[in-house]
Each structure stands twice: as structure tokens, then as C-alpha cells.
Amino acid sequence: MPTQMNSEATLPPGPKGHFVVGSLPMLADNVLATLENWAREYGDIFFYRAAGLRVCYPTHPDYIEDILVTRNHNFVKGMGARVNPRFFGQGLLTSEGELWRRQRRLMQPAFHRRQIGRYAKVMVECTQKMLSRWRAGEVRDLYSEMGHVTLQITARVLFNLDFTDHVERIEATARAFHARTARGPALVCAMRYLPTPTNLRYLWTIGRLEKVVYRIIRDRQVSGRAGDDLLSMLLQARDEHGQAMSDRQVRDELMTLIGAGIDTTTLALSYVWYALARHPAVEARLMTEIDSVLGDRPPELEDLPRLIYAEKVIKEAMRLYPPVWAFVREAIEALGIGGYRLPARTNFVLCPWIVHRDPRFYEQPHEFRPERWTEEFERQLPRFAYFPFGGGQRTCIGASFAKMQTSLMLATMAQRFRFSLKPGFKLKLLPTITLQPKHGISVVVQDRLPKDRGNFPLNCSAFEPLCWTR
Ligand code: HEM
Q1: What is the pLDDT of residues 381-411, one digit of tens each?
Q2: Measured from the CB, is residue 340 less than 6 Å from ligand 1?
Q3: Spatial separation of the C-alpha atoms in residues 398 and 377, rounded to whole Å
Q4: Substitution site in 233, 264, 273 for ligand 1 pocket (most atoms within 8 Å of beta carbon)
Q5: CA distance 220 to 303
Q6: Which atom of ligand 1 is nearest to the CA of 68?
Q7: What single DSSP character describes residue 13?
Q8: For residue 448, what are the contacts with CB-CB under 8 A and spacing of at least 6?
Q9: Distance of alpha carbon 106 from its chain centroid, rounded?
Q10: pLDDT tens sequence across 149-163
Q11: Is 223 helix (H, G, I), strand (E, B) or coil?
Q12: Tens of pLDDT along 284-324?
């Protein structure tokens, strides 16, 4: 671990001791492994320069807590908010200061545990509808399938709408979005005004999606129909001067929820199933729990506290494959951290991917072991050794929603089917703004006949090597 103090004006040398393009991890052949190796080699804090920006990775949980909680007033989203302004606008994810505070206050009640509990039924029904179309023996891309259902659920519960007609637009936007962010935030920021094909496609797909969102807003305004969904809350909200939110602000919040909520939850569930397909003993234990708690009836909200092992499985999958693998803060003023003095405008990348795999906190960190999540283990784990939903005042507003949906969908699916990886399938991870499975997650659907329950054959794909690529 570096120990020297450095002057405010200079940065200590980063990996390989230079700040040229060669030290940009997002250009490495294997971004995730490169970052993890740097953390193990250079200690709790390391640095590099990227496209003229100073980038610092604090990888100790205490430093992360310092940035997100203790000294959060000294940080803004900075580069993180400038990567996709055309998509998110001034929505909750990217806004700052008074605007953020007002919008968070306004939207928080819609995500309250009691409020979202009402949506459990919709989540289960949408999942069952998907399953009713599946047949044993089919090959399916779980990432894409989970994406469709999550989109339907989000649209139904937040906007009381059926999004079936808009799936294509949303998927096209997501593809363009990830293609653009695959080179990392520093390069995206540097190149954001250039008319590259990637940028043009990104702008075009956003324009198409935005049209749909504005139409939804207009239809609701014209109909005057007031529901108790989030869209109605946004339209009815008034500030202290009696002013309603502008259409533009409502658009930004809707686009933010679509952008921040759907892909992340889709990824969480996809990686749960990927991990289960590779670990038949864990899968068998999970199925046993689900069978004994639910029998053949569909899961309900009240069942979740009893699905204890399922919760551990989800936690462990989100440790190994955090959907938001990294996010950024920019320092407003110079600060000291980890024995270094860093100037204002330094970008801090907070990286669950690295911290969640730190052997100081997780024994055999690369292994999928849901059993590790005992009460005792959680008690001694530093607070920010596990932070898939971020932390502090900007913690994910949709965390309870996502956890409930993931648990209910997992239980509903596990009652009906199990999945083995398609022969020859290897996971390739693509770290864009989220942790994408580059080629989806290809599985073979297998019936869970009653006679099979609790008696699963050994799955050879459990021993396939994992292949990390950019
Ligand atoms: C497994 C699923 C999810 C994961 C892993 C996840 C992860 C995160 C993380 C790490 C942050 C913090 C980003 C930062 O501090 O810069 C965040 C913020 C946020 N998330 Fe999530 N999220 C998930 C689901 C959702 C859902 C379902 C919604 C809404 C429908 C949502 C909406 C948001 C919003 C609006 C913010 C910004 C909050 C603020 O700054 O006040 N997320 N999420």
C-alpha cells in the first residue's frame, strides 16, 4: 500500500508509473481482471489519468464510507452525471443540490416498502405469464427474457401501463446506450460531442424512446385520470409556490426510472440463474426451501421472510456480479484520503466489483457460496465491503423494489423450471455502465416434475471455466 504523502498539485504514480493511454483500464483486454489485479498489487487506493481526468480508485470499505457518507457533502456525481445527459437529463440519478433533494423527497414515498408491497401480485403474474410460454428442452437467453418481464413489471407498477408495444424501442436504446458507454466514462465524456456512428445511433434511439415517454405524459394529462402510481404522483406534485413539475422534469424522471431500474434488476436475476446453473448443490437446496415454504401455491409478499436461503443466494450472486459494477464521485474541494492529498475535481471510482472480491473480507472470494451469509458474518463485515445498491443519501431508491422483485421472480420460476447452461456457453462480461453479459445467458429449460424435486442430477456445466473479457 502506498504510504507517501503527496503535494496537492501532483498525483502519485499509478499502475505502471505513467499516465498515458496505456494505463486506461477500459482499453485493457480484460478490464475487470486488470482492475482487480491493480487493487491487489497497489493496495487500498490507486490512480491513473484518463483523457485528461484524474481518476482514483479507493478500494478499502472505510474510504468508500468516507466518500458516500462521512464527507458526502464534498462530492458530486461529476463525470458520472455527464456520461449520459441526453438520456437521464436532470432526473434523480444525475441531478444535484436542491433539485435532487426536492425530487427525492417527492419520489421516496412511491418506493416505500409498504407501497411497493402492493405490487407483489403483479410481479408474480407477469412471471407466470412468461413461464406459460416456455417448454422444456427449449434454449432461451435468460438475460433477454428477464429484461422483457422486468420491463412489463416496471411499466405496470410505476406507470400503470402496458409496455408491450415499446419493447423494441427500449431494447434498441439499451443496446446503443451500452455500446456508447463500453469505453468507460472518461472517454465517453471526451468524445461526447463527436458525430461518431455510436453517438449518432445513441441520440436517435433516445429520440424515439422519448417520443413514447412524452406521449404517455400527455395522455395522462389529457385523460385527467389520477391513479396512485408514480406517474400520477409526479404530475400532481406541487412545490411551495403551487408550481407543477415541468413536462421536461417528468420526462427526465421517467427516463431515469426506465434506465436505472430495468437493466439492473434484469442483470441481478440473470446472474442468480447463471450461478445456480453452475452450482447444482446450491440449486437443490434452494428448490427444497422453495418447495417446503410454498408447496405448489404462488409466492406472496408474506413468504419472503421465510425464503431465507433464497435471500442468501441473491446476495451472493450480487456480490460476485454486481449489476452496477462501479460508479463515480467527483471531489468539490481538495481532500486527504488514505495518506494522499488529492486536488479538487479528482474523480473517485467506487467499485463494488473490486471490493466484493477482496480476500480480506471474503474467504475464497471468487467462489459462489451463499452459505457465507450468516448473521455472524454480516455482523463483522465492514459496512461498505458490500454495497451493490450504493450507500449514503444517494443510495438506490429502488433497492427494496428490486429485492422484492428478484425474490418473487426467482421463487416463481424455480417452482416451474430449472436451467442448465447451453452446452459450450461461456459467460463473457462486458463492463459498460452496468455489468453486461456480452452474449446473454443461454440456457436449456428443464421441467421440474414433482418426482425431480430435491433430486437433481449433477450438472457438468458447473465445472466450465469462467471467461472474463471486456
Ligand atoms: C438489482 C437492482 C438494482 C441495483 C443493483 C441498483 C444499483 C444502484 C446503485 C449502485 C445506485 C447508486 C448510484 C450512485 O450512487 O451513483 C443506484 C441509484 C439509483 N437507482 Fe438503483 N439499482 C437497482 C434497481 C433500481 C430500481 C428497480 C430502480 C427504480 C425503479 C432504481 C432507481 C435508482 C435511482 C432513481 C437511483 C438514483 C438515486 C438518487 O441518487 O437519489 N434502481 N442504484
Answers
A1: 999 999 999 999 999 999 999 999 999 999 9
A2: no
A3: 25
A4: 264
A5: 35
A6: 15
A7: P
A8: 287, 414, 415, 416, 417, 418
A9: 23
A10: 998 898 888 788 777
A11: helix
A12: 999 999 999 999 999 999 999 999 999 999 999 999 999 99
